[in-house]
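Troubleshooting: if your tokenizer reports a length mismatch, compare your output against this known-good record of 198 residues.
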Amino acid sequence: MQAVILVLVLAGLVPVAVSNAADARQALPRKPDAALPGKGAMPGTGQPTNGSGRFHWYENGEIRTLRVDPAWIADFASPPTASTRGKARTPLKRFIGGEKALESLPAGASPVFRDENGAARALAGGVVVRLRDADVPRARSHLADAGLVPVRPIDPEGRNWLVQSPPGLPSLELANQLHESGRFESATPDWWRPRALK
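Known-good structure output:
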């Protein structure tokens, strides 16, 4: 009889519950609930902190994905580290706090992200908003009506505007909210990217 049950189990016809608990009647621990505060989303972003470190933004109407590089942060509040011969000045700093510590970065700091190609980028503050043609003549008032503080137009036609936002994740969140709202043609963070000296 035991041989028949063993054959059925191996064939997958009879389910078997396997437990490492000392007592088979003892329930296994539950998985953490992602809906609990502090368990599933980085505060204010709706983005995961469950180890995936995946975020997104919009570029030319397309959704682009990012992952957090927990070994680095970009500190835009402090002066950039001094340059040495052949190296550019940079706000990048080594970060040993890991992903969990990224939830409580100091003001003026941003996580360092890696895009699909592995290139580093960070959020220095500001969002680039592209207006619809009909909104260009009254650009400043249209941006103000949306609760934004316009900094300056970044093209001669006045169609693309830089608007204020703090550095870090609030900048990414604002850009995504503006893009998804449909009030503008597009919105994307004003990314900081390291430059290579020639």
